[in-house]
Amino acid sequence: TGKKLAQQARAVKEICMDAKSNLSHLCTERIIYENLPPHPFVVRMHSSFREYNNLYFVLDFMEGGDLFTFMRKTKCLNLADDALGIATEVLLGLEHLHEHRVVHRDIKPENILIGRDGQVRLADLGMARILDRETFCRTYCGSDSYIAPEVMRRDPYRFSVDFWQFGVLVAELYGGRSPFWRSSELRVGINENILTGTYRMPRAAPEAAKKLMNRLLRVDPEFRLGCIDSDFLFPNERTETSAGTREIKSGWD
């Protein structure tokens, strides 16, 4: 819901805290938002409050909605023309989280929001966790074909899952769907593709992007690309996302 607060639009996220709610997760999400320094590619929480059995987060209002809806609404098969800018902005937001010891664990188009200027921001820290040097996650979580193989195997994991999901996102930006998806396969087939690292490379992806995906979508997290500088994405190309000059071809005014 968009609200006008101090002459600036904000979004209010309402969370019903019923008996099934995981209160520790909600507290962790609020703590992360409250302690995370502002960043241009991560949605910011401005305040939070509780009323009866509902918890409310007051967040940045992103006029363009989420990336998943945008891709379906505009009937884009892929976002190849905008993939470089989107991927770079998501990566910079992801690096910001990791610098503050936060693992997101649910990177997907639904959790990437688009501003009126066409820039994107990482959102929804409901599955995020704060890790110290010796902490590992063990919870099975994630979304469909974005789940990392180590999570599927129930192995302990850390920041590597975010880079796996980032690799799937890059593939979807260029190909319009998960690289593990097959029209004739059931869910179990997709899971097998993830566990074995069997995927299709998007035809629209340039060679640099294909190399990046190959290094991100490695089943063994010890050999997966993890510490990425934004210039590594496409070393022979340039983007002006930080200056706010890129615009996604959108369906809104």
UniProtKB/TrEMBL annotation:
Presence of the UniProt keyword Nucleus in the record: no
Upper classification of the organism: Eukaryota, Sar, Stramenopiles, Ochrophyta, Raphidophyceae
Keyword Transferase: yes
Domain Protein kinase positions: 1-234
Matching InterPro entries: Kinase-like_dom_sf, Prot_kinase_dom, Ser/Thr_kinase_AS
Organism: Fibrocapsa japonica
Molecular function terms, GO-annotated: ATP binding; protein serine/threonine kinase activity
Keyword annotations from UniProtKB, A to Z: ATP-binding, Kinase, Nucleotide-binding, Serine/threonine-protein kinase, Transferase
Protein name per Swiss-Prot or TrEMBL: Protein kinase domain-containing protein
PROSITE patterns: PROTEIN_KINASE_DOM (PS50011), PROTEIN_KINASE_ST (PS00108)
Pfam families: Pkinase (PF00069)
